[in-house]
Write a structure and sequence with these properties.
This protein is mainly beta. It has a single domain, classed as SH3 type barrels. It is about 10% helix and about 50% strand.
């Protein structure tokens, strides 16, 4: 057990209310504050922004992302 994480969903629980980076199957990336998720890793993000080459491309706002389209999730890097 590292940092209180025993299972993958423990990491998502610790990330609730924080900004995360989500990489999608189609190669696009979004960053936003994690509001909710379920066992299928469907997620709800607030203040969501689409990134291109690490820079904000457009603001999306509130977003629901299906878990089967996500390739990885990580803490968000600083954005411009």
């Amino acid at each position: 057990m590292v940092n209180g994480i025993e299972r993958p969903l423990d990491l998502l629980n610790q990330s609730k209310g924080k900004e995360i980076l989500v990489n999608l199957e189609n190669g696009s990336q979004v960053v936003g504050k994690l509001l909710a998720f379920d066992i299928h890793i469907n997620i709800v993000l607030d203040n969501t922004k689409e990134l291109e080459k690490g820079e904000i491309k457009r603001n999306i706002g509130l977003a629901f992302i299906r878990g089967n389209t996500i390739t990885y999730i990580s803490p968000a890097p600083a954005t411009s």
